[in-house]
Amino acid sequence: MNDEGVGPVHALDWAMVCGYFGLMVLIGWWSHRRVKTDADFFIAGGRMPWWLAGISHHMSGYSAVMFVAYAGVAYTDGVTVYFWGFASIGIGVAIGAWLFAARWNRLRTRFGVASPLEFLARRYNVPAQQVLAWSGSSLKVFDVASKWFAVAVLLNSFAGVPLLWGIVITGTVTLLYCTAGGLWADALTDFGQFVIQAAAGVVMIWAVLDGLGGISGLWTMWDRLPAGRTSPVTGDYTTVFLLVYVLVKTLEYNGGMWNLAQRYMAAPGSREARRGALLSSALYLVWPLVLMFPMFAAPLFVPGLDDPTTSYAAMTQALLPPGMIGLVLAGMFSHTMAMVASDANAISAVITRDMLPVLWRKARRFTEHQRLRTGRIATFSFIVLSMVVATQAQDLGGVLSIVVSWVAALMGPISVPLLLGMLPWFRRCGARAAIVSWAGGLLTYGVLYYGLDADQTATVATPILVSLALYIGLGLIASERTEEVDEMLEVLDGEPAIRS
Questions:
Q1: Closest by alpha carbon to 421, among 112, 122, 134, 48?
Q2: Which among 166, 107, 117 is positioned nearest to 140, based on CA atoms?
Q3: Per-residue confidence (pLDDT) for residue 500, from 0 to 100
């Protein structure tokens, strides 16, 4: 065992992990037979049961970053990471269940939309659609790269597997099943991964409670932790940071992170989409507490770690017998593979249906078979590119820097015109408001992050607040309201049919 408390992985653990990888590939192969058109590939043909859509939405929303970067915050700062990292998502998805879930579904059923950005050309114009598509796709490359790197860190911590090989192994398995089966494969593997993750979470919390002396550890542990570990806010993660995160996550997890909009679109109807969102919200509020309790307890089991991001891996190997470690490791993989497969499918939909037809006239005349083949090629290319970028994650500031400072800060300016453009209260906001708010938010981020070296709260909060002010303000002082947009928003509200 090395100085971080991590020893060699047993053959039983490797067997468990390999069996998990094999199951994911088999699900992808089975799902391949259900995919006949690009609509099947991108939105499961609108036939996904609400409970599967809800579980898939939940599983697609967080990754192995939880067991690396967030575990490190839990180790050094305590419960604050739950409040801004997961309670904010649960609240945001609950809000979205009433504001956005049904509207996303009606975009599919009433307008035939199969990509999260497809409606923007009609809501605003093609240039507005394209700037959001290109900037969002570029950001997603780095977001997904951080997930690959997080998994590689786990493999390295558990078994000394070189970071490069950790990226290649998990990336290749994900590539196989999500390229073959599309959203059906994503959702079905999400369900399988949820079951595995649940078993792994129960095993881990049982081991921690056993080490704490029994069930009473649930309430007696906190007095033994260093001071300040039970506070929802800290000097780095302030009340303002938490409140802004609720706003960011409301936008991000209801469509700003495009893959999650697909879960709403894939449900049979708007009622089912809303039920799926409420299920996902409940899971975000409850299940992370189960997964994170061992992380909060980690200072009692593996004190004095030089690298807090290795705390979960170190504690797992300290507490669990061979075979069970492999189950927990498979549970960690499940997060990342669920999110990455989901992201890849969403990006391929945007590339195939929104970006490529603008760049290449011939793509506008593609048959369903050609769009399906293009979607698979785009999925493959996106995953490979993100794996290449993942090899440079350390030079980009590490996992937490990418996820919090980059993705959280930049997702807001991209999400504001996408999500608010679906609501009737913003019908006066047109293409000008969309593009200016997007550009203003990104420019603000660039000045704060690279020019002023602002603190984390300002870096995350200011860009989205600037985007909101510009979008709403331009709509008020320079209305771009049109009859076509009014009709579209009425349909999204579930009111009249489209008028000829």
A1: 122
A2: 117
A3: 35
Total Cβ atoms within 10 A of residue 454: 16
**Hunting for tokens 């590339």 — which residue is that?**
351
What are the Cα distances from residue 93, in Å, to 70, 196, 478?
A: 20, 24, 31
How many CB atoms neighbour CB 103 within 10 A?
24
For 76, 231, 307, 406, 463, the CA distances from 239, given in Å and listed in that order, are: 18, 11, 26, 20, 18
pLDDT tens digit string along 359-406? Answer: 888 877 887 778 888 888 888 888 888 888 888 766 655 544 555 456
Torsion of CA 467, 473, 479, 485, to 10 degrees: 40
Q: What angle do CA 133, 137, 143 make, to 5 degrees?
A: 145
Tokens of 425: 């209260």
pTM: 0.81
- Find the angle CA(23)-CA(27)-CA(30) to the nearest 5 degrees: 135
DSSP 420-485: HTTSGGGTT--HHHHHHHHHHHHHHHHIIIIIS---HHHHHHHHHHHHHHHHHHHHHHS----HHH
User: Quick one: pLDDT at residue 28?
Assistant: 67
Least Cα distance to 348 among 377, 369, 368 occurs for: 377
